[in-house]
Write a sequence for this structure.
């Protein structure tokens, strides 16, 4: 008889999908085990129909409590694995879910989750989830790619459109109107005849300057008020070009070819290590380092990563960045060149 395992994921869109790669790897590696996943309802819909995993969505804290009461009536789990979750609800799961073993990412909930892995100083984005699960099942292989069968099925058979994702939840990872216009013009040249669609959530703060400026010539704005709208539109793309945001994880899970422009964040960490058709672009001068300047209002590093990819100059300068910007102390011209990393196991590190 297989083991009963409860996984908990409670995070943002991209982080949740990356964590799900570990659940998928576990289900494929140990098909006789009985797996249950607790995850936000809006993300649970993206995973509908996944084989070998019972998906239980929760829309709020009361909904989560109701699910835990339901689970308490079932046989005890062999393990609760909180592979990517934060906040007080993590404690509720630790208290109410009956299990022989309980594992969390680190020691912050050690009173309820006495087991936690030793993580490297700079783990891959996907690594904490896998390390938690591996502590319970040491034979679990590290997941190399993100793929969700239901999402992949939503991809058109012969997609032709080109997508751009310019907005993140941080200004320092968001493209402004000028650099977006430059990228759009370049993509129209490199993909002649293909529709170019710019993906925007009108509610995002970073979308307003782009909407005020209007869509670049020959392009159109695409809005996705619901995740189902996003999946439908991404399914029409032959390639997505985007900043580092959750959008690219959905595209990757669908099998859409993706190019991500990284500014302050580390290209080698923020994606699956062997994701097919996935390209990372960042300024060469930044190497593997992460920028901790959270109040950067204009991401010069991102702008020039895009500009160099387009083989064009751009007028923003290092001198306009915050005083703590890691570009400032670098010798020579830190904006002069980019690194492009693509294909299996090629990490930008």
């Amino acid at each position: 008889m297989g083991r009963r395992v409860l996984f908990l994921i409670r995070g943002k869109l991209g982080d949740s999908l990356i964590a799900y790669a570990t659940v998928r790897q576990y289900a494929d590696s140990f098909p006789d085990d009985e797996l249950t996943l607790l995850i936000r309802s809006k993300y649970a819909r993206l995973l509908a129909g996944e084989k070998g995993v019972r998906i239980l969505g929760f829309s709020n804290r009361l909904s989560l409590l109701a699910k835990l009461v339901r689970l308490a009536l079932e046989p005890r789990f062999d393990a609760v694995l909180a592979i990517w979750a934060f906040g007080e609800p993590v404690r509720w799961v630790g208290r109410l879910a009956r299990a022989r073993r309980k594992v969390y990412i680190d020691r912050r909930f050690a009173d309820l989750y006495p087991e936690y892995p030793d993580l490297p100083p700079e783990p891959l984005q996907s690594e904490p989830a896998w390390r938690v699960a591996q502590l319970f099942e040491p034979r679990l292989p590290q997941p190399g790619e993100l793929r969700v069968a239901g999402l992949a099925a939503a991809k058109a058979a012969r997609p032709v459109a080109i997508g751009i994702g310019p907005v993140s939840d941080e200004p320092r990872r968001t493209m402004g109107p000028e650099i977006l216009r430059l990228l759009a013009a370049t993509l129209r040249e490199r993909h002649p005849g293909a529709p170019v669609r710019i993906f925007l959530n009108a509610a995002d703060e970073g979308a307003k300057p782009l909407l005020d400026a209007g869509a670049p010539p020959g392009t159109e704005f695409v809005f996705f008020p619901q995740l189902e709208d996003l999946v439908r539109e991404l399914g029409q793309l032959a390639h997505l070009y985007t900043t580092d945001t959750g959008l690219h994880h959905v595209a990757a899970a669908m099998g859409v070819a993706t190019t991500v422009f990284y500014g302050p964040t580390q290209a080698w960490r923020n994606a699956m290590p062997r994701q097919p058709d996935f390209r990372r672009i960042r300024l060469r001068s930044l190497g593997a380092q992460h920028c901790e300047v959270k109040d950067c209002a204009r991401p010069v590093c991102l702008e020039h990563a895009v500009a160099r990819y387009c083989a064009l100059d751009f007028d923003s300068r290092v001198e306009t960045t915050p005083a703590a910007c890691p570009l400032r102390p670098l010798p020579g011209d830190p904006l002069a060149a980019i690194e492009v990393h693509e294909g299996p196991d090629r990490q930008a590190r």
Q: What stands out?
A: Residues 13-29 form the longest helix (17 residues). The chain has a mean pLDDT of 95.
